[in-house]
């Protein structure tokens, strides 16, 4: 499992996981990637932005692939149809931000806060 979040969210997850693991009698390890970073791309144009950045955009839901952005290794996770998570194990330098902005410029890329992202995920979705 990959848990991307702030220290409080990760601590809560660890508590839940440790209870579940001890109940099931499993052995597991947890590793905190101190220099890691995560970026979310969400919205109907997210796949186009991922592709424009030269990253694997043709992933199915819950599929994972490796790529490079501005020379930095990145793990790309397609969380759902219009939400990608970019995971950087060694942080992301300014060149990564610049490359993402360049790739997203023609697609309407805009920064949003966590509250706006939560509202986007809570919004009712049209039926297919």
What would your notes on this structure say?
With 128 residues, the protein is of the alpha+beta class. It has 4 helices and 4 strands; from the N terminus they run αβαβββαα. The chain has helices spanning 7-24, 46-52, 94-104, 114-122; strands spanning 37-42, 64-69, 72-80, 83-88. It has a 4-stranded antiparallel β-sheet with strand order 1-4-3-2. The chain starts with 6 loop residues before the first helix and ends in a 6-residue tail after the last helix.
Q: Give me the Rg, rounded.
A: 16 Å
Q: Report on the biggest sheet.
A: 4 strands, antiparallel
Shape: globular
Order of the strands making up the biggest sheet: 1-4-3-2
Task: Return the string of H and E elements.
Answer: HEHEEEHH
Average pLDDT, to the nearest integer?
Answer: 81
Assess the beta-strand content as a share of residues. 15-25%
Indicate the low-confidence ranges by residue numbers.
none
Give the end-to-end Cα distance, rounded to a whole number of Å.
30 Å
Quick overview:
The chain has 128 residues and is of the alpha+beta class. 35% of the residues lie in helices and 21% in strands. The two termini are 30 Å apart.
Blueprint of the fold:
Elements: H1 7-24, E1 37-42, H2 46-52, E2 64-69, E3 72-80, E4 83-88, H3 94-104, H4 114-122
Antiparallel strand pairs: 1-4, 2-3, 3-4
